[in-house]
Task: structure prediction
Amino acid sequence: MGITTKDLALICGVSRTTVHRALHEGTGRINPDTKEMILRVAKENGYRPDLLARGLVKGETFNIGVVVLDVKNRYFAELLSTIGTEIGRRGYFVTITLHDNDKETEINQLNRLADYHVDGIIVSSVNEGEDYKNFLYSLNIPVVSVDNKIADGIPFVGIDQRQAMKDATVKVIENRYEKLIFVCPPMEDEGKRNIYVHKERLKGFEDATEQYHGVEVLYLTNWHYLEHLESVLGAAQKTAFICSADEFALEIMKRLKKIGKKAGTDYGIIGFDNIDILDYVTPRLTTISNSVTEVAETAVTLLFELIARKRGKTSLEKLELCKILPYQMIEGETI
Result:
């Protein structure tokens, strides 16, 4: 068992109140020499503060919960890395849980985080709607959602997915591709889970294609999309795949490479997300950056503003709860 503030008080010959003042700034006046002596003794004896006990007293646990899909997807790995860094800078810890696209698992994880009295939660949700919004309200914990919008009223950070995909599609059309194949396997799960991001990207694709005539449009919107590549590619038309995520684009490039087809030469292809491994893929995939670092940083900042407001430490009554950040077209070699 570690040394306690009671032990420090006995060793230093002072009261526990004096020890508390030495260890915590802004808790009362203390003689500088006494403070220096207490801090030295604490260090020599390996004193570590009991954050749980302190949290129970102050109503803070210095712990933030984060709930995402998984860490196999490079987007979420990057998101978690930045969130962890930003939260750590503020002296807090992070508890990461993975819902693996299961709605009940996500609810159970959120309930468990609430049981552990985390100070706030960041979630990329597989749930959505008014009932779920009310559930989040019932937790009485500040929550910020990223990527998939849950419902109006739940703080949200993301990019304009629809406009970004529209821009991507227009770029492809302006490069004189005659046949556009929209690849979005998650659409098969519509109605089963929250796929807000992919639905917005589909809308953006359709916004663009409705403006142009003479372009053939096809859709691959189920998880067996790779089985249909050769039949939809064709030879007569200049064809491009427009993918709702980089991982789908990379799978297509891998499959078509096996039959001697090269991206950017035999067909065009564009992704979405700008995951970090694209720097190691040849040819370099053209894609949309969804500003994962900025989304993560903004989500953490917004969450701590909500936490401060809940504790009455700020008067931010008109706090902006929906933050839409800029995106960027990343030029590659595949369009």
